[in-house]
Amino acid sequence: MHKEQGVGKYKEIIFDSETPEGIQEISNIKIENPNSIIVFATGCMDVAQPGHPIFTEQLRLVGEGVALEKGKLLNDTEIIVVMGIGRDSTLKTLKREGRPINPEMNRAYLVASYKDVDYVILNNREIGEGKVDFGKVLKLLNPDVFVINSDDSAIDIKAKLCSNLGINFKKVERTVPDFLNPTSSTEIINKIKGLS
């Protein structure tokens, strides 16, 4: 997947899971990349912070690991990283009052600009058990692997969903390289509000 040139170029790799066009585009990712390892993960990505691009770097590395597990040569296998973004309505339901800070399309566009991200999907509006707002997307996309942070509060539910769909399930640790200060979107918001 190669991103086009020009202002607004990342719009072309953002798909809305609630529109017929978006549903078709999501289904096409696997068809258009038959020899690839497709890695899928989700998040709110509300206020930009270094943990977000670190996570997408981890996704690409997980994809490379899965490729090697399957006996594929990395030079011959493209790793496709697809990031699902929670809807504004999802954040209003799951987060504290006043969230999201940034509207869903702004958040999706920012994540689409990350070097390691190939596609971004606006997740479903419906929230299922375990805060799953991507069940339909997971079925449409049918990725090779679904990745979550190891401290996710619904690991068992998400692992079971992946098992039922025949999707490889991987966990990664939240990592902060030595040259960065650990932070979170909530900490940034609290600091701006003068709460920390």
UniProtKB/TrEMBL annotation:
Superkingdom of origin organism: Bacteria
Stretches assigned to the Cytidyltransferase-like domain: 76-190
Keywords, sorted A to Z: Nucleotidyltransferase, Transferase
Chain segments annotated as transmembrane: none
Keyword Glycosyltransferase: no
Keyword flag Nucleotidyltransferase: yes
Entry GO MF terms: nucleotidyltransferase activity
Designated name of the protein: Bifunctional protein HldE
